[in-house]
Fold this protein.
Amino acid sequence: MVGEVRQAGGVLAPSKFWADFSARNLATLAGDGGVETFKRSVNNNYFQWVILNQRHPDFRAVLREWRSHPAPAPLLAHVESDARDWFDQDLAQELPSPPRWIQPRAYALYVALLWEFARRRAPSGLGERLEEPLLGRPVSVRHRRRRISQDLANSLLEYAAIAEGMPAQRRSTARVLEIGGGYGRLAWLWLAAHPGVRVVMVDIPPALALAQEYLTRVFPARRAARFRAGADLKALHTEVLASDLAFLTPNQLEALDPLGADLALNVSSLHEMTTEQAARYLQLIDRHATGGFFYTKQWRRWENPLDGVVAAREAYPYPERWEVVFDRVHPVQVRFFEALLAL
């Protein structure tokens, strides 16, 4: 994968930020545990936040929601015993943390409140059918007799937002194109929720390799088009369309004929690209998901000093023909915005 991306070059070659980020993640995965424990190591560099202080804006958001729908269940949630060692490391945080002995309790409360927030917004019964996979040794929380996680709650909340504008029948059989999907937390939810869904993951290594290992192991019966370097484009296009799971580098996506995706996704990575890269990915989404939807969730303002980029909410050059279903501040991660657009 590294060779494929390096040889392709061009505007989609990793930004300086992503080259540095990928090198650090690769070093982490090469350490003790690797894929078997990645949800406690490299996942801290994806969308898993260390939220222990009730003054954190995300914690305040779910607490406000809980006060309007009070229930005892979140107060009974607890971090599962095999996840407690996660709190023994030095975890980067924005606010002072509570004493070490109470940190698992504070984290469990946050995750349970986040789960309740997402569960109320998701289509009826979906939350009751989901449980965090054990692969990767997640920092899991026992809540309502289920194994949940911050990743699972965030993915459910993102799914719930998409469901506001995307018809149920189309969701159940969608081809989902995810760009920059990390290890595949959101892709996992779509595949778990709908047996008829097909997913195409597009990323750079090591994220693409991690997603391929993770998703093919948790869904061994799904037909997978694994990454192949230097693949014949016509054969690759046929293979991707015939698969339930496909894994592509950005240059491969750029070279393929339209995939006819029903939904394109990008969560928290457009802002980490150069202006030219972000614009090119939006063009590719327009090409591969014509007539579908695009869900995006990005920082409202984020500075990338390595590439000299300051990304702001209004900076993304959506094609003029796209129609906005919603564009709003995220209800929990209030420093982010989320938008759903019809293509």
About this structure: The chain has a mean pLDDT of 93. The longest strand covers residues 293-299. The CA atoms of residues 44 and 146 lie 23 Å apart.
